[in-house]
Amino acid sequence: MSRIILASASPRRRELLGILYPSFEVIPSGADENVTAQEPAALVEELSRLKATDIFEKQDHKEDALVIGADTVVAFEGEILGKPQGSQHAFRMLEKLQGNTHQVYTGVTLCTLQAGQPMIRTFHECTEVTFYTLTPEEIWEYIESGEPMDKAGSYAIQGAFAKYVKGIRGDYYNVVGLPVSRLNQELKKMRAEIYEKGSNL
Question: Cβ neighbours of residue 176 under 8 Å, at least 6 residues apart?
Fold first, then answer.
């Protein structure tokens, strides 16, 4: 593929994709994110597929493009925690997560063209994250920094909240927003499949 396209405006995903590709385009999807899935893994897969296919369908030369879409959510005791809608909402989320273990799900979809037909691969990765116990004052101090306001679950593991992370089980980069190692493995599988069918990726 001569064009690699990231269908996300996230600066964190942009930085992480740079580990795999030194050069790529960023075209954020503006697709309506109304989805039907309720379970975290299914939800992030559906959203990532929606974003990736939205951008892929808009490309004039699909045979030269590989589009990567991704979406991340935090889940705790069956409840999906997205981005906070305000400071009070952020506080409620962090109050639930402090002193407990939760899950971070990231769904990724790869879209390209093979033998004139769309080739779509979707997967998800899950990482468990455990926080130390926080006081209300510590939670508000973090919220007032502004950092949690555009983050799923109201925190950034790579930011100031790192000092409250007791441990993780799984891929750290998945929590940041893109499971780089799994993505690399899925790309290798896709390349092998395309090569077997007489094309290149």
Answer: 12, 16, 156, 157, 158
